[in-house]
Sequence to fold (567 residues):
Amino acid sequence: MEPLAHLVDLYEYRVEDLLQGKTPKGGKRALLELRAYLIGARLTGPLAKRFRQADARFRAHRGQEAPPQALPLDLPLELPEEVPEAPSERDTLRRLALKVWTLWAEREVRSRAKELLQGRREELRLIYALLQNYQAYREAPTFKRDFNLSRFAPTIPIPSLSESLLDLEDPKVAEALLMEFLETALHLPEDLPLPPEETRTYFRRLLHRLLEWDEAFGLPPKRDLLSLRKALEEAKSLGATAQEIARLEERLKREAQEERRRELLLEEERRRFRVAAEKVLALLHLLPAPQGETPLPEVPGPGEVREEALTLEPFPGKIPLGPLVLTLSRVEGVWHLGLGGEDHPLEDRLVLPWEDLEVWAVREGNLLHLRLEARSSLRLYELLAEGRVLALLLNPRGAYAHLRLLRALSARLKGEFQPQAFGPDLAEKYQKAQEEALLDFARKGLELTLKRLGPTDPLPLLREVGQALGLPQEAEALAQALREYTGRRPPTRETLGGEVHLLSLTPEPQAIRVGGKVVSLRLRDEVVYVGQAGEVPRRLKDLLVYRLPEGTLLLAREGRRVAYILI
Fold:
């Protein structure tokens, strides 16, 4: 813990002693000296908040005392007004990025909530109990120094499915619960001086302590079999009648059966909620790195030109953003964002739908960030993430080494792996196949292999088949690609590793400029054709891997919306 945190702790303790009528350790002089030092120190946000709260209690107590005598030290009696330090542009951009992440997380949570509103809703009930216990323990004096939760004792059980105070059938309730969980985890480093990477471990400990608590599941209390056994022994030693002994034995047997039934039910409840706990912890990968696995959205600085994202200081006028033209206006001190002839109050965050697009607007300080997102972007991003793996598989280098490795891995998982069946001779078949047929073949092979692989790490098996085929480096590269594809769900603009571009299809031909090349898209009878001048165009169904000298162009289509990226 940093030294200033220790001093704030000490100040809180001394103020509490003073409020309880005790003489603070070191006397009032030491208290005032410590207070003066902390007033002049540069405290970070959480520490400054704690100090101001403790100092408010100190000043309220001093106001109730008799007017103080002249102090031997020239110390300030009132805490000077806090002059907020002007945030740097870097900090402002990070806060903008966090607000963009919140908008993205809210969209993800809406889809996750639908999955969790099934069955007995163990995940939602567990999240509710976790949050309630965490918030209650946060007020405890031991909270700030109990990083491994060794002093934590749960007090609030998991609610029943029919809990009247918690309407878990309402999707809005489920969404709010999931967002509260993510935001609580996001701000954990502000509550505790823990490294961000320890967030998942901290909540895993908290869930473990909660599930080890017998009273967490709302079952009847444990029966006192020991007292019944002692009563039976005493009855026998005192010469009780056979009927009394038989009655005690029958009661002990009945209570033992009930206790056994309770233990079995307790284990079953624990088993179900342990499975739910893993699903709850899996939600934490939605957090921005390093707390989770989602890269923080990229927010360009003022003056940086991006096609579908920009940051600027608000000014009245027109703002081009992708295919749209927005207007900014200020009426009676309130900024408004105009789209399609309609003005909308621009406060902290704003989402405006426009056909199959969404305009996201967030404000922080004197900066406004605008970005364009596809309303159906999740499916488009999933297709682009699949396309990244397919681009590797369809690379002809090394006689289609990666595609051969994928087929060998699939055979190894099925138990039919023979190295000679996956040699360079296969490359001749791949070279003769039509590009569209080869793409479909690689997609089906990828889907089948991942289905057989399940949650297993692909690296050990790929190393094995890679050694057998003499392709160890290619096996490592494919394992990394499969790990990223299966581990980064859902994909985002950042995890795709480049600038994702979006466009809406029109009856008129459209052009994509890639370096010195121009690739055209033509829509004919709901079929999209992609190609360059002088070549046979290729058909874009939902995904296309298009090779160029500058790199590989991935195109994904959903309805009239197309997303593309150059890798």
The first helix runs from residue 3 to 19. The chain has a mean pLDDT of 83. The chain is about 50% helix and 15% strand.
